[in-house]
Amino acid sequence: MPAAGLRLERLILRSLRTVDASLDTLLDPLRLAASLPQALSLLLRRRPDVIYTTGGYVAIPVLTAAALLRIPSLLWEGNRVPGRSVRLSARLATVRAVSYAGTLPSLPVPTYLTGTPIRALGGIDRAEARRRLGVPAGPPLMLVFGGSQSVRRLDDAVAEAVGELVTRCAVIHLTGPGSLARAEASRDALPAELRERYRPFAFLREDMAAALAAAELLVGRAGSSTLAEAAAAGLPMVVVPYPHAAAHQRANAAEMEAAGAAIVIDDSDFDGAALARAADLLFEARLADMAAAARSLGRPGAAAATVALLQSLIEGAPLPDRAALDTQTREAT
User: I want to staple 53 with a disulfide (CB 3.0 to 4.6 A). Which of 59, 72, 119, 125 is the partner?
Assistant: First the structure.
């Protein structure tokens, strides 16, 4: 945030996920208590018109302070199963928004179904996107993306299978800066005529939308943003849910799998052979049905719908009509 010119202020609170008995087990409740006056001071100084939070433990003191100061707030939950901090703080928020219809009954009213705010994906030509990313025309394209962090499980699978994969398809692999050198070495070891079919990158920022538009299949984790972007792009998925964090990603992935938009593979079962089998989807007729199913789940207007809720809170106006807001979430921005 500071690099983007935005002011960042931290609370003393840390994650409350401590499992093993340690000094932090004693200090965490004290840090939480100390964060409340910090949050009160911050909100009194800044006097925001509205609070927007995506949950997490920092939301507990901030939403508590906002409630005490009568500052309206919107809490957004992106996982199918709300996290512990969201369950603890949901009633403190003025309004809540969620990504999955199945989450609505578990949170207080009013809670709106908005989907997950994502980058704009419309109006990108697939052929031009491939050219921008240096992907050759012709072979189908697989995008391997672990989310906001490098994923060793996916990186290892690509390293094992890349020699076979490039004989059948092109691969864009987002591997993170720490693993890029290894991926580039794998590329350099390929036959010269096939090297251009494997395109490893540390990250794609401005060109991530182009990668989503260019691909025919996404292999990745089941974070809320990854699934939302795949759905909005009509991109079938092979999902390898992160096995920890209360199995939130498993529940997220189950939504896409139930709709016919994804195939789910357990983290422990995912290796080079599994990735090579996943590539078979690129040549199967059901890929088109999976793409249609993914698109049916898409809510590319989630960001605009979230802004509409925030604007209502800022203005003290009635909250949007649910049917109208649902239509807005379905509209590309």
Answer: 59
Looking at the structure, tell me whether residues 143 and 282 fall in a common domain: yes
Residue 19 confidence (pLDDT) above 60:
no
Instruction: Say if residue 173 is in the same domain as residue 272.
Output: yes
Residues 107 and 151 in one domain: no
| Residue 22: inside a domain | yes
Rounded Cα gap, residues 230 and 300, in angstroms: 10
Joined tokens for residue 194: 């096939």
Residues 146 and 284 in one domain: yes
E strand map for 228-298: 237-239, 262-264
Band of residue 244 on the pLDDT scale cut at 50, 70, 90? confident
Q: What is the mean pLDDT of the chain?
A: 93
CA distance linking residue 123 with residue 104, whole number of Å = 32
Which CATH number do you get for residue 293?
Answer: 3.40.50.2000
Which residues is 239 bridged to in the sheet? 220, 264
Residue with tokens 């945030």: 1
Give me the residues paired with residue 172 across strands: 143, 199
Percent of the chain with pLDDT over 70: 95
Domain that holds residue 27: 2-116+300-330
What's the whole-model pTM score?
0.90
Same domain, 63 and 162: no
Domain count, the chain: 2
Same structural domain, 293 and 146:
yes
pLDDT digits (tens, 9 = 90+) for 136-194: 999 999 999 986 656 889 999 999 999 999 999 999 999 988 899 999 999 999 999 99
Q: For residue 17, give Cα distances in angstroms to 45, 65, 119.
A: 30, 22, 30
- Please give the Cα distance from 97 to 100 (Å, whole number): 9
pLDDT of 304-314, one tens digit each? 999 999 999 99
Q: Is residue 206 predicted with pLDDT exceeding 90? A: no
CA distances from 296 to 234, 259, 329, 331, 332 (A): 8, 9, 12, 12, 13
Please list, in sequence order, all residues whose beta carbon lies within 8 angstroms of the beta carbon of residue 2, skipping any fewer than 6 positions away. 8
Say yes or no: 284 and 323 in one domain: no
